[in-house]
Design a protein that fits this description.
It is a single chain. The chain is mainly beta. The protein has helices at 15-19, 34-42; strands at residues 7-13, 45-48, 64-65, 71-77, 80-84, 96-103, 106-111. A hairpin with a 5-residue loop joins strand 3 (64-65) and strand 4. The strands form two sheets. It has a four-stranded mixed β-sheet with strand order 2-1-7-6. A three-stranded antiparallel β-sheet has the order 3-4-5, with no helix packed on it. It has one domain (3-123): Roll (FAS1 domain).
Length: 124
């Protein structure tokens, strides 16, 4: 992806978020094909025609389309914001723990869990 695609908002899971997936029955990353892995990673990217989404721009309860054409829904709870995936377990909703890290073509937010899409939609 380049700046020609638009402004990027990227939700980057921490190393600990990926490590927590090892051996996890609900969200095990290891058996995914490369196509499925790319699909999951693209679920962490939002491409906007104009401006990237800063923390303040993430509307609680709103829907945002990701680079893999699915949607994520920001959730707010007790002053924190979370990025809910379509297959996210309630106790594994990624919290935005680092915010508004500017990059040349957008902004990065660090999250403490992987945002999990509905992989069934990959083939539909």
């Amino acid at each position: 992806m380049s700046t020609e695609d638009g402004s990027l908002t990227v939700f980057v899971p921490t190393n600990a978020a990926f490590e927590a997936l090892e051996g996890n029955e609900d969200f095990d990353f290891s058996p995914l094909t490369s196509k499925q892995s790319i699909y999951v990673l693209m679920y962490h990217v939002i491409i906007a025609e104009e401006n990237a989404l800063y923390y303040k721009d993430l509307e609680c309860g709103g829907l945002t389309r990701t680079a893999n054409r699915q949607t994520v829904r920001p959730k707010c709870d007790q002053g924190a914001k979370f990025q809910r995936g379509s297959k996210q377990l309630e106790d594994k909703i990624p919290e935005i723990i680092l915010r508004d890290i500017e990059i040349c073509n957008g902004v990065i937010h660090g999250v403490d869990n992987v945002i999990w899409p509905n992989l069934d939609r990959l083939y539909s």
